[in-house]
Each structure stands twice: as structure tokens, then as C-alpha cells.
Amino acid sequence: MGRKRNDEKIQVVNIRMVKEPSIYSESRISCPEDAVKAIAKDMATYDREVFAVMNLKTNGQIINLNICSMGTLDASMVSPREVFKSSILSNAASFIAIHNHPSGSLQPSQEDRDVTRRLLECGDLLNIKMLDHIIVAGESAHVYSFREHGELDMLKPKHKAWER
User: Fold this and answer.
1) Strand partners, 51
2) Reading across the β-sheet that carries 129-137, which strands appear in turn?
3) Which of 27, 47, 40, 28 lies closest to 99, judged by CA?
4) Which structural domain, as residue segments, surrounds residue 120?
5) What is the pLDDT of residue 141?
6) How many domains does the chain divide into?
């Protein structure tokens, strides 16, 4: 038998979660909404748009928070690939999307709605439910919830991608 050539080798890949330093809060967290309020203060400190996901277990307990994208003063590129990477690796049942508006505006932009719609569709395909999309307004740390304003239901896909 001849020797194997280097181009015939198949690379083996290992995928692991890498933990970042924790966000500390003195707030008592008993539900996802409390967690969002706790991290809103941290999100309010950024001088550029940051998009993150909070991954949750089936019982709503928080698994982790992943910053998926750090953008510019008024925009952040959000790729479903980056959003769902941590959700899949964390074995999350659901997630809450969170991003900030350094300008202080609480109003979602059309881009915010488009991203939400796309994440809802991808979550439907992956069976990872999007519970909410929260906008944190600048230094005030006030929050806008797509769910509370009925926008999450309006943006949901009209049909299931496939029957489960």
C-alpha cells in the first residue's frame, strides 16, 4: 500500500462552548423578564449597537447570554447563524433577543422588525422558540418588548415549516 497524501486526510472538528466572564447583578432573578431588566443596565452602557441572545431551558431558567454582534452607532449586523450557534450549543429550548439603541430611541426600526421576523422563522425551523425581542434605549435602560406590544405575534410565520 502506498502512503496517504495530505489532501486525502479528513479533518476532525471539535465544537465547545467557551465561557466568558459573567455579568453580575444584585437584582433577584425569578423569570426571564427580571433577567432582561438586570442586563438592560449593562446593555445601556454600550456606545454602539450590540445584539445579544439569552438562551433558556424548557422551564425558563437562564442558561447563558451571548453577544452575537457588536456594530456601529446606529446599526448591527445580525446573522441567524451567529444567533442560533449559542442556542444550539447550549441545548436551549427558547431564547430572548436583546439589543440596544444608543440613541435612546425605544421605537423599533424596520430593520429590527425584519431581523425579528427572520429569527422567528429560523427558530421555527430549529424548534427553538423566540420568546421576545427587547430593545434597550440608551442610557435610560428603558425597554421595549416586541411581545408586550403584540408585534411578535404579527411577525410570526403564517405556517409551520414542517409538521413536527
Assistant:
1) 69, 99
2) 62-70, 50-56, 94-101, 129-137, 142-145
3) 40
4) 29-155
5) 78
6) 1
DSSP code per residue over 93-155 = SEEEEEEEETT---SPPHHHHHHHHHHHHHHHHHT-EEEEEEEEEGGGTEEEETTTTTHHHHH
Q: What pLDDT does 163 receive?
A: 45
CA distance 40 to 139: 9
DSSP summary character for residue 58: T
pTM for the model: 0.80
Lookup result for grid cell 416586541? 146
Q: Read off the CATH number of the domain in which 80 is found.
A: 3.40.140.10
- 129 assigned to some structural domain: yes
Condensed to tens digits (0 to 9), the pLDDT of residues 112-129 reads 999 999 999 999 999 999
The contacts of residue 130 (CB under 8 Å, 6+ apart) are 94, 95, 96, 97, 116, 119, 120, 123, 152
